[in-house]
Write a structure and sequence with these properties.
With 151 residues, this protein is mainly alpha-helical. The protein folds into two domains: 1-60, no CATH class; 66-151. 72% of the residues lie in helices and 0% in strands. It is built from nine helices and no strands. It has helices spanning 2-6, 10-22, 29-41, 45-58, 70-81, 85-97, 104-116, 120-133, 139-150. Helix 3 crosses helix 5 (70-81). The longest helix has 14 residues, at 45-58.
């Protein structure tokens, strides 16, 4: 599936995944992550959210067990474009609860989604949390927080 992902062949990936499900082949977290990433790369954000919700309902998480933020960040990025702030915030809290350290990308994703969802107080709240950790925000994060603070 991964070569199809890079070719942005979402429909083929989705069809293959549905065929796997229909034939009783259990999907793993890597398969779900591939479908979600391809949907994002194909600008099909509703599909990314749909497949993320399917993943989440199974109890799987991207590339578990996870002790670093990258797999979560990959999963959250498509949700950001779909303005799925509550899902992103829930995942971020889950990361904290599981002892997975948050990085600039995680914070930036949460802040950007909050801003895009018109949840300006949440954007500022997460920026303050970022600042308290001692991490240095990047330009994108600063820009999104400044935009949120103007509203």
């Amino acid at each position: 599936m991964k070569p199809l992902r890079f070719g942005r062949q979402f429909q083929l990936i989705e069809d293959l995944t549905v065929e796997m499900i229909d034939n009783g082949v259990p999907l793993d977290n890597i398969t779900y992550s591939t479908v979600i990433t391809c949907a994002k790369m194909s600008n099909l954000f509703d599909k990314a959210v749909e497949w993320f919700e399917k993943l989440y309902k199974t109890g799987l998480m991207p590339n578990e067990p996870v002790s670093y933020p990258y797999p979560y960040n990959v999963t959250m990025k498509p949700l950001r474009f779909g303005r799925q702030f509550q899902l992103i915030e829930d995942l971020t809290v889950e990361m904290i609860d599981n002892g997975v350290p948050l990085d600039n990308i995680t914070y930036s994703t949460v802040i950007t989604c909050a801003k895009r969802s018109n949840l300006f107080d949440k954007a500022v709240e997460w920026f303050e949390k970022l600042y308290k950790t001692g991490l240095m925000p990047d330009e994108v994060t600063y820009s999104n927080v400044l935009d949120a603070m103007q509203n």
